[in-house]
Amino acid sequence: MKAITYDAYGTSQDLKLVDVPQPKVGPGEVLVRVKAAGVNPVDWKLAAGYLDPILEVRYPVIPGWDVAGVVEAVGPDTFDFAVGDEVYGYVRKEWVELGTYAELVSAPVRTLARKPRSLGFEQAAGLPLAGLTAYQSLQRAGLKSGETVVIHSAAGGTGSFGVQIAVALGLRVIGTAGAHNHDYLRALGAEPVLYGEGMADRIRALAPEGIDAGLDFFGDGAVEILQSLVTERGRVVSIADYEAAAKGAHQLWVRPDTADLTFLAELADAGGLTVNVEHALPLAEAARAWELSAAGRTRGKIVLTV
């Protein structure tokens, strides 16, 4: 089968489109014919070696964790899905090696759910990692309907999912973003606030009684700002500040979860969650996709079509 691979830590220029053996399918796994694979910043950060202290890597690596496709075969003693089922998921395994930038991927059933019926394969491939991150961050903060949450970097891939999910859960959402994204946030249901110097004062003006929780999807000192605003210090969650736990906040690492993926799919099918795919590139252009991701100027998702 065709797949994108790299043989050592490096950059987008080290990616190659090559022929590799078809993956084996073990118990509790299914073989997925990939229709689209989502591209996330963690893909190129991992390839650059940034996560070497915590993740086992075995070369050659096929990158990618997000997938949408069709079940082609099922492993022994596996009854969760059948051949022909349309699925999507966050296929993170015990080590980094056999990812989703390929024609086929073997996926543990714990990493998959049935694809949202209302989304095409490209849209579905853009949802798992970022959608799960947003939803699990809201869960970690213990938010309940009627409460107020600030989402830092609300117009980004994870942030825009966070806004939509929070609104669907009945939360008041204040979202930080550049001025050019404020109309976009209003359309999603958030109250926009300009980030940068004076951000805390602008949030206090909107919520003088304080906020219930804060989600940091960007970093750059946001944890401390959010902690100064929340009524309970422990209700700040960050995916971007690796010292968040030492500061008394929660540092979240997203987990594959079939139930959470099913929730996101049902929310999308109910009209409460949309996926904006800004770039859909063929598998052979994975390097270009990484360059677009690293530039940080893409509002929607980037996916590879297979």
Automatic annotation (TrEMBL):
SMART domains from the UniProt entry: PKS_ER
Record InterPro entries: ADH-like_N, Chloroplast_QOR, ER, GroES-like_sf, NAD(P)-bd_dom_sf
Residue span, Enoyl reductase (ER) domain: 10-304
Coiled coil stretches, renumbered: none
Organism domain of life: Bacteria
A Pfam family this chain is assigned to: ADH_zinc_N_2
PANTHER family associated with the record: ZINC-TYPE ALCOHOL DEHYDROGENASE-LIKE PROTEIN C16A3.02C
Protein name per its UniProtKB record: NADP-dependent oxidoreductase
